[in-house]
Amino acid sequence: MKVADILRVKGSTLYTVQPDEPLAKAAQIMAEKDIGSLVVMEHGDLVGMLTFREVIVSIVGNGGEVGRMLVRKAMDDHPLTCTSETDLDEVRRMMLDRHARYMPVMNQKMLMGVISLYDVAKAVVDSQNFENKMLKAYIRDWPAEKEEGKDG
């Protein structure tokens, strides 16, 4: 299974923010849209990833206040990325190794979407459920074998 398979099911809605926008505005967008991440874009290029983790760490580091902090100060400026052709097993390994919950999907320099660890887990479970269903159907339709020693 490839990342493209997840994006096909998930859809193409993307939420982005610019690095010089206030962190408070980014947090408000995340809360209103009920999303856990924003892709940080500048002049059409991916420059970072902002997740609820970076927001919380920044607020705690600033004495519990968002203040006038900018997205640039809070964002991960070296996010993991993958392509739509990356195999799901590789994405899973990458996300687990880096404790990443969100990953931008880039084809060349074009942002194609964002996948989450939830999206990956759901795709794996759905695939396993489908495989189990097919195996059970195959077993139910298993042809009856002739008993040994009897002519048939």
Protein traits:
CBS-domain, 3-stranded mixed beta sheet, 152 residues, elongated, two-stranded antiparallel sheet, alpha+beta, 6 helices, 5 strands
Can you put this structure into words, describing what you see?
With 152 residues, the protein is α+β, with helices and mostly antiparallel strands. The chain has a single domain (3-140), classed as CBS-domain (Roll), CATH 3.10.580.10. Helices cover 45% and strands 18% of the residues. It is built from six helices and five strands, in the order αβαββαααββα. It has helices at 3-10, 23-33, 52-61, 71-74, 88-98, 117-140; strands at residues 16-17, 37-42, 45-51, 102-107, 110-116. The strands form two sheets. Strands 1-2-3 form a three-stranded mixed beta sheet. A two-stranded antiparallel sheet has the order 4-5. A hairpin with a 2-residue loop joins β4 and β5 (110-116). The radius of gyration is 22 Å and the shape is elongated.
Shape: elongated
CATH superfamily: CBS-domain
Please list the strands of the largest sheet in the order they lie side by side. 1-2-3
Sheet with the most strands, sense and barrel status: 3 strands, mixed
User: What is the distance, rounded to the nearest whole angstrom, between the alpha carbons of the first and last residues?
Assistant: 45 Å
Low-confidence stretches: none
| CATH fold node name | CBS-domain
> Helical amount among residues, as a percent range?
40-55%
User: In CATH, what is the class?
Assistant: Alpha Beta
Specify the structural class. Answer: alpha+beta
> Would you tell me the overall average pLDDT?
89
User: How many domains make up the coordinates?
Assistant: 1
